[in-house]
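Lab manual, section 2.4: Encoding a predicted structure.

Procedure: take the sequence of the chain (278 residues), apply the prediction step described in section 2.3, and record the output as structure tokens. A sample record is shown.
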Amino acid sequence: MTRWGLVIDISKCNACYCCFIACKDEYWDNDYPPYTTSQPRHGQFWMNLAKSERGKYPYVKVAYIPTPCMQCEDAPCVKAAENGAVYRRDDGIVVIDLQKAVGQKQLVESCPYGAIFWNEESNLPQKCTFCVHRLEEGEIPRCVQACPTGSLLFGNLDDPQSDVAKLLKVTGAGVYHPEWNTKPCVYYIDLHKVTQHFIAGTVVYGDTDECAEDVTATLSYDGKSATAKTNNYGDFEFDGLDYGKYTIKLEAKGYAPKSIDVDLKATEYLGNIVLNKT
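Recorded output:
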């Protein structure tokens, strides 16, 4: 049995908006019954891009998360629909019935991901369908086809030989907002770049005022630890962190070690940290 899914690599997305434009081109002024009516020219984002900015000057990191309909196995919109107006196909695609869903504006609010939109002209809720009309013709979704960086990968999640299944196995990709328990069929690689935090800093040698390369940085928390080395700019970074209390210890031969306690409540850039000669 086929179960269609999408794996999105956040590290590869550069916000070129090709996926968004391709989606708009596919659906604006085009009907694909029985799955979708035409998308309005403005106001709907079936493949949206959300920006995440972490850190502070001069250490800022930006990432983008493409957000289509998640094609949830336990879809809130299915539960909120009256008269079976939203249903989930055997291949996992969630479809809004164009006849039964007329006037059911409550479906827009039912989606925690904000992936359902209201079409005033047709009096219908609308959303991404993984381009099911194209799948039935042996084609892939337009957004996947248009992506120039390869950040979108589409395929059968239940086929262990498919590219998406192999990618999930080796990358440990996760779902967006797992706490909502919707069981999405859209997975993300490097999701921490938009959902978690980092601690970073720049190490400088006090006697030479130069960037301290190859300094050992050790992060300690809850009885665990991780290590990193400063680069040629003296920078170190620990990413994928949750809120909590951490200790950073910096060590370099010939210099006095330095420890810094961090009560992490948001991404933290520690600025310049000076190591002095012993």
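Check your result against the sample. The mean pLDDT is 97.
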